[in-house]
Specification:
Elements (H helix, E strand, L loop, with lengths): L2 H9 L3 H13 L12 E5 L2 E4 L4 E3 L3 H4 L8 H11 L13 H13 L14 H16 L3 E5 L8 H6 L17 E4 L19 H11 L7 E6 L13 H13 L3 E4 L24
Parallel strand pairs: 4-5, 4-6, 6-7
Antiparallel strand pairs: 1-2, 2-3
């Protein structure tokens, strides 16, 4: 038995989970890490029950996606109703109404009083990469600006955009080119060394210089920005920075990609985190 497997099993609360860890060790790749080495048998609301009968409070919520808790009655009713009709049709092969109705709903919910269209993706990485593809196609420019400590996913371009080397990027180099990283506005640990009380948004000066630099001018397609960083440590930027960034992108015809994969929907008290910074739905 490997040292890693022995350590995991010693931490387990029961025999049944230990048996399943043995199978996991044999048949599942080690590329998948684990936070809590226990196997869940049932979930209800905010509670999880494992195969040994131990009960836990679900603090992860499926990495933030179970905003209504596990097995919410309204969600279960919707799933059962859909199962009775059809499951897993490809919208690229045949149309179905639910896709269009969801896009219509998203257009009403998303900030901005302009026409909107949606394209649904399977994951955050896929959404990020397609957003950049759209920005490149629209602007006919090659470059994108990302931020330190940002996390955008595990596919290659999403990794290139990620501003956090360990543990995500190590061993996977080289990454796609034309990605520029700049400091995220983090007042508690200011990248410019300023005291919080004397913040003068000097961190904005850095991205302003990047966008206006002769080597980047007319070559930046987009800036991808988390209105609150998740993997970076739950960092909330100054409202003035977000407003200045939005204005800069508008002035330079740069597409501003609002990445709310970790903050939406409703996790910050509003449907979209950007609404805290004045990006209204009307």
């Amino acid at each position: 038995m490997s040292a890693r497997k022995s350590e995991e099993i010693e931490q387990l609360p029961g025999r049944r989970s230990a048996e399943l860890i043995e199978l996991r060790e044999k048949y599942v790749t080690h590329a998948l890490g684990i936070v809590c080495p226990s196997f869940i048998e049932r979930a209800e609301g905010e509670f999880l029950t494992d195969v040994d009968g131990n009960r836990y409070i679900d603090m992860a919520s499926g990495i933030g996606v179970n905003a209504l808790g596990n097995r919410h009655p309204a969600v279960l009713d919707a799933v059962r109703g859909q199962l009775d009709r059809y499951l897993h049709l490809c919208f690229g092969v045949v149309y179905f109404e639910e896709y269009v109705r969801l896009a219509e709903r998203l257009a009403r919910l998303t900030p901005g009083d302009f026409d909107k269209r949606s394209y649904l993706n399977n994951s955050g990485s896929e959404a990020v990469e397609n957003a950049f593809k759209v920005a490149r196609y629209y602007t006919k420019r090659p470059k994108i600006v990302s931020f330190s400590n940002a996390f955008y996913g595990r596919t290659m371009y999403a990794l290139a955009l990620t501003g956090k080397d360990a543990p995500y990027k190590q061993g996977f180099e080289p990454f796609p080119a034309e990605v520029i990283h700049t400091a995220y506005p983090y007042c508690y640990r200011c990248p410019c060394g300023k005291e919080r009380e004397s913040c003068s948004l000097e961190c904005f000066d850095e991205i302003y210089r990047l966008v206006n630099d002769v080597s980047n001018r007319s070559r930046i397609a987009s800036v991808i920005f988390e209105p609150m960083q998740g993997e970076g440590g739950y960092v909330v930027p100054p409202e003035e920075y977000v407003k200045e960034l939005s204005k800069l992108c508008t002035d330079k015809s740069v597409v501003l990609i609002d990445d709310e994969i970790q903050t939406g929907f409703g996790r910050t008290g509003k449907m979209y985190c950007a609404e805290h910074f004045g990006w209204s739905r009307t």
